Amino acid sequence: MQTPILLPLALGLALSLPAAIAEMPATVGTSPWGPDDQLGALNLMTERSRASILSRITGGTVYDLSVEYFIGMPGWHAAGDPRYQIWMTHTPRGTVNDDPLQVGEAANDHVSYTGSAVSMYTHTGTHIDALNHFGLDGEIYNHFSADEHLGDTGWQVTGAETIPPIVARGVMIDVAAFKGVDMLPAGYRVTRADLEGALARQGVALHTGDVVLIRTGRMALYAHANRYMDNPPGLGLEAARFLAEESRAMIVGADNLSFEAFPSEIDGNYVPVHTYLLAQMGVPIMELVNLEGLAEARRYEFAFIGASLKLRGADAAPLRPIALPIH
Amino acid sequence: MQTPILLPLALGLALSLPAAIAEMPATVGTSPWGPDDQLGALNLMTERSRASILSRITGGTVYDLSVEYFIGMPGWHAAGDPRYQIWMTHTPRGTVNDDPLQVGEAANDHVSYTGSAVSMYTHTGTHIDALNHFGLDGEIYNHFSADEHLGDTGWQVTGAETIPPIVARGVMIDVAAFKGVDMLPAGYRVTRADLEGALARQGVALHTGDVVLIRTGRMALYAHANRYMDNPPGLGLEAARFLAEESRAMIVGADNLSFEAFPSEIDGNYVPVHTYLLAQMGVPIMELVNLEGLAEARRYEFAFIGASLKLRGADAAPLRPIALPIH
Amino acid sequence: MQTPILLPLALGLALSLPAAIAEMPATVGTSPWGPDDQLGALNLMTERSRASILSRITGGTVYDLSVEYFIGMPGWHAAGDPRYQIWMTHTPRGTVNDDPLQVGEAANDHVSYTGSAVSMYTHTGTHIDALNHFGLDGEIYNHFSADEHLGDTGWQVTGAETIPPIVARGVMIDVAAFKGVDMLPAGYRVTRADLEGALARQGVALHTGDVVLIRTGRMALYAHANRYMDNPPGLGLEAARFLAEESRAMIVGADNLSFEAFPSEIDGNYVPVHTYLLAQMGVPIMELVNLEGLAEARRYEFAFIGASLKLRGADAAPLRPIALPIH
Amino acid sequence: MQTPILLPLALGLALSLPAAIAEMPATVGTSPWGPDDQLGALNLMTERSRASILSRITGGTVYDLSVEYFIGMPGWHAAGDPRYQIWMTHTPRGTVNDDPLQVGEAANDHVSYTGSAVSMYTHTGTHIDALNHFGLDGEIYNHFSADEHLGDTGWQVTGAETIPPIVARGVMIDVAAFKGVDMLPAGYRVTRADLEGALARQGVALHTGDVVLIRTGRMALYAHANRYMDNPPGLGLEAARFLAEESRAMIVGADNLSFEAFPSEIDGNYVPVHTYLLAQMGVPIMELVNLEGLAEARRYEFAFIGASLKLRGADAAPLRPIALPIH
After folding, report:
1. What is the rounded end-to-end Cα distance, in angstroms, of chain D?
2. Considering only residues 210 to 229 of chain C, which have any Cβ-Cβ distance to chain B shorter than 8 Å?
3. What is this structure's pTM?
4. A-to-B residue pairs, Cβ atoms closer than 8 angstroms
5. What pLDDT, on a 0 to 100 scale, did the predictor assign at position C21?
């Protein structure tokens, strides 16, 4: 159906298979919270967990963790997805000629009206992947099937509208700093050892229910869409298992797109870290998180507050999260 | 250019003119923060003001103040603006046939890929108006002119990307409850006396820099787009002046669309509350704020946290704000 | 997934079933042109059939059979489909501020650049339905199945790009004139007798391979989108069978949307005329064809020339057909 | 407002200035058809001119002069314009889950419904530029000004809806064949001598009111969007003057995008051939015309029939023209 499009990522399939990963059955996960559960790891957030982190906030500094949206921004265009667009629907001079509200030329001359509209792939800019974004064999996390629950305007389960506002302990793991570089090399696959080393260097431990954000340093290329997208560093599968299974993170994220490194480590699965986290573990992923301010301030532990748009049925939603210092 | 579209609001122009308002010169405001200022009242937010409210947070309850986005949702369509749309760009079965990433049928069968895209007028769902949304005589707040600063993809000043994350004291004024009704009548214009009466009933005073949210009860009709849009109750000009000039609110908002009541109180200006707040006072407006949870809990004072998408150049941006109880 | 939307058509299901229709098996048709055929009745068009009609053209009069596209135009919005939109991407003043081509202010001041973009449901304005638009039980005409041939960006068979330019004998059947009215009543279902009566009145016979266009007079309401869409007159099933089976029309069309009348005559099928023509007979349908000029001139037979946009994979495509007088 | 985007064309400005061109005043043209005229050279088409060419049609061969529309197709994206998109709004399986028409599961299972939508820059695929596409100093052809006639949804004059169906003598000038190459070299600027040489080789003369189509051979790269767009060959100014002023062409077109060659020959004007033809001479331009079939058949003279979509107010519109052999 499509003419060849230059793929920014080498979506090759690996030949070798790490033993530990090979043992993991490649089927979607069953939620321990019951057959109707649509939240997965988000169930780890409770009134108590929120109270715990909110009570530790100190001062009034705010770190803005999101990126800007603009025409030409990075995105997942290689798969044919639409690029971010913004256009004017009303302008002060245009309304004088159009008179869209039928108020007459004098009123349009006096009241200078500006309106605009946007369109975007839901995975554009700083965003969170809903659990339905990637499944296995026609099912998503907790065995909801596409054939029964996917309509032409989205999923009837686990849509972005089901994601609650996130108020949680946040931990930033600065892998780039641990490696002593500004930015991890192209295609670098972050290992479990990298995460543990960086955490030790930072003197921070992970707790159940954390929002864990990995800094690769890739954000330095954000203004250069093609370079940002070209073979980014990303997380490996064992590192992902360390976060989701051992550390019991509630959400994982990074400053890159799209979170994991390529080519895939798993034969026959081109995005195994996505399917592992979303479909097997029920752990949402955040991408394009801007961690530069936190890195500069060496702020590794914080209150994370972020609430994604409630796009009914969507497989992702943009959000503008913030980090607040804690004692 | 357009065939007649049914206007949900009677955009008539008033014949009489309240004395106090008539005295107000109908020109844009000059920022007290200097000729380069693009933030207006948002300058009232400081590290100290944020620290002050954050230190008062109690417990871990979160009120979600935003609405859902779905096809058929209410919107400002009468002016020709595009309606909210969501569509699938990738589905588990579709990718098997399309193979957009050129990974082959087996991989597409195994990895069940869902993607979607959205388009919307920027004033859709819970959102904040940037200061450039309405100006007077070709200028916006602080005398930036459309001819010099408006391009085809947005404003070069006061765009949504300039709006910082909002962390502030929030006050909800439940005018519907004060009036003893579930919902204010169609077209009802909220007065200064209503605001003062409701505040007295609630036992809450306004402070400089507050985010002030007016509850009309209109949200009860949100699922019925045409009824929600048809002649809503809204704020009057004197009430707006009470909030912006006397109470020095940083942001004002409501649960309706579009904030003010119609027909206009001012001859020759069909949205005088918008131009007063945005263009004359530099006070952003929030619309479609869901206040039902706060109303039910009789929670009138809270920590307001909301961060709108950084849509470069835009005249508005969606956000999903939350309210947190304070002592 | 959706809030209730006012349906302009009463999509009720009939209780009684005409005998002749009941006998027709409700499965998709098998093409007499072979298992790979994607064209159906369009195979009736040959170099000889085109030469035959082209040789009869007289003079230089052209009838424009298409409608205009504009914001607020009629459309099939009741099913949630996007409305027609047009917006400016470049304007003379905007480019001066944006400088999208990086040519500098002087060049942008001198060269006044205008660009625009559009979006639309493919069944917008004058258009032709491809055979994949409606099928039965997961298959379309000639047994292509959605599961095997439908991707996320369209069908891999019978897409609009497969429809050739149409050059054929055209016959307009003015049913409104035959009935002695300007416009058929709301919901009127055109019968076989109406078609035969109108043809007799016109003194025109149908031939194999014709493009047959039915005039209901509905076009008079085109400027009033809601009225145009509200319970239109349309074709009944026996009339459709008369055109497709007995008269062997290549394409059928009308000046209404959407061609057939509602409620349906067939239990369990809400668009039986569409499924009969497209899926069972392989006959494409044209809608929103502007026949007013032909009606005024009492021009019932003509050379029809129309070429729809080659939208790869699409289930319909807009076109602007013309009619040329013949001797 | 924008991050740098890779420009496929070197939009440099020339240093030298051909004498003849320098003499041409750089202001918009005044229509000889009067101050209200919006058609320019299209006035050359008359009932007589159409009759003349239609009477010469021989046989039933049809040459399809248009290209296909698909995701990833070439386009003018370097200026930030939206790329062609198509997406499904209804699918057989999706409607079963969505039930958009509220007909119930059985009816949705039985009636397999497919719908799709498209969005595109109006200059996408085979299209015609309206006269308002490029002007000079804020005015377009015949002195209509943007300030008075351009609204937020298009121009109130010379919009695409004003362009009549084109029925005219067509002449294809195969410059590539004249030069003995399959495709003119990248950036090659077609000269007047090239046109005259090719016409002599073809044994065809131009007449007033012709649709003149230049073949560069570029269409061979159409399936490779980036290569198609990268520094294409195109028409020079003197060649354009030969066509518009001396030969009195009604429309000029080519198989490339965007018609002229770059860098510009005129200091301070980055698209002088466009402004010359559209704004000074009132001659519409067609781009992306597929001339491969005509070239293969050595068919240089034909009846040209093409009718562009009536997009109200638009600066261009897609069309699918055909060529018919004549004696």
Report:
1. 55
2. 223-226
3. 0.94
4. 340
5. 52
